[in-house]
UniProtKB/TrEMBL annotation:
NCBIfam families: carboxy-S-adenosyl-L-methionine synthase CmoA (TIGR00740), PRK15451.1 (NF011995)
Protein name per the record: Carboxy-S-adenosyl-L-methionine synthase
Source organism (scientific name): Zhongshania marina
Top-rank taxon, per record: Bacteria
The gene coding this protein: cmoA
S-adenosyl-L-methionine is among the record's keywords: yes
Keyword Transferase annotated: yes
EC number, as in UniProt: 2.1.3.-
Amino acid sequence: MTKHDAIYSQPQPSIARFAFDEHVVEVFPDMIQRSVPGYATIIAMTGVMAGRYAQSGSNCYDLGSSLGASTLAMAREIGDRDCHIIGVDNSPAMIERCKQYIADAPQSIELRCESIQDSHIANASVVVLNFTLQFVPASERAKLIQTISEAMRPGGILILSEKIVFADPHLQELNTDLHHAFKRANGYSELEVAQKRSALEDVLVPETLNQHQQRLRDAGFSSIDVWFQCFNFASLVAIK
């Protein structure tokens, strides 16, 4: 049973930097559902797109796999096709719990506990980065996207979901307020919203959609589209 997220429900004298540790793992499914607008849709459609674009004899990667939601969505939609599914996460706590979640997966899944920047990516037809790139240092993002692009088969896809910022300050303020209202509607208090925001400062560093799209173009992706957006969360698909 999913535990209720109450990590930031009590006043904390000092806010530690957010980390995907054992405390977060315990409540992660509840935390992300209540924090990310459209999360369930993004996960489900990640599977659908993987089912469309996964090529027999190729690898399908979930980079920043956490508890394996996107990994399992891919596995369900790819079915018995001859594909190797690989989940990569640098949190040992996430990987250990993920093993339980994927135990009954319809096909074998390889889990790697390592940095996605250091993970070997090759022969890929589907690569998923769902709310992962935003935690990678900004100076390392272009190299990672280039590495992914070079490892992809022609016709393969990258699914990239991120929290975004807006160049227009009025839109930035509006979408931040709407996101906070979304969290309050899902039961988070003002204290929880404020304390988690402090914990994520300088840990989760979002970018504009234009920055993401330009980086994808520079890396050699030919067709790029925002297929989903709700407030300051968006998902892009890029075809090689």
